[in-house]
Amino acid sequence: MGLFKTLFGTTRNEEKNEKKQLPWRPLVSMAQLEEIAEKSNTKTQLIFKHSTTCGISSMVLNTFNANYDFSNDDFDLYFLDIHGNREVSNETGYKFQVMHQSPQLLVIRNGIVVAHSSHGGINDIDLAKYL
């Protein structure tokens, strides 16, 4: 097996297991929403609202992770498990004036949502516009 790996590189199974790890920050408290709004004055903030019980949400999250190609300095990434943090999820919609959907991505600059989408539209957002 070592000879094949040397000649041909990694196997497909190894490639599948090497998933890109994004610097997600868990969004678990209401106080963080105020911090996100404040930090958005100097750096664009992203909130990914995810349903752990929805296959579509998982598929969209996997696609987002695979296609995300920005440095840690470009955006702060927040991950919101809507089932584990229902109150935070509800408050996110109120604070940023966006109707709840999941999966959903919010792009926040200067304290307001400048872009948002849900389901397959998440991966259509051109994040480079918000650097």
Question: What characteristics describe this protein?
Answer:
Glutaredoxin, 21% strand
Structure description:
The chain has 131 residues and is an alpha/beta fold. It has one domain (23-130): Glutaredoxin, CATH 3.40.30.10. 36% of the residues lie in helices and 21% in strands. The protein has 5 helices and 5 strands. It has helices at residues 2-8, 12-17, 30-39, 55-67, 86-96, and strands spanning 24-26, 45-50, 76-81, 104-109, 112-118. Strands 1-3-2-4-5 form a 5-stranded mixed β-sheet, sandwiched between helices. The longest helix has 13 residues, at 55-67. The relative contact order is 0.19. The model has no long low-confidence stretch (mean pLDDT 90).
Give the percentage of residues in beta strands. 15-25%
Q: Domains counted in the coordinates: how many?
A: 1
The H/E string reads HHEHEHEHEE
Largest sheet: 5 strands, mixed
Strand order of the largest sheet: 1-3-2-4-5
Radius of gyration: 17 Å
The secondary structure category is alpha/beta
Envelope shape: globular
Number of strands: 5
Low-confidence stretches: none
Roughly what is the average pLDDT, rounded to an integer? Answer: 90
What top-tier CATH class fits best?
Alpha Beta
CATH architecture assignment name: 3-Layer(aba) Sandwich
CATH topology: Glutaredoxin
CATH superfamily label: Glutaredoxin
Identify the quaternary structure here. single chain
Terminus-to-terminus distance: 45 Å
Number of DSSP helices?
Answer: 5
Helical residue percent band = 25-40%
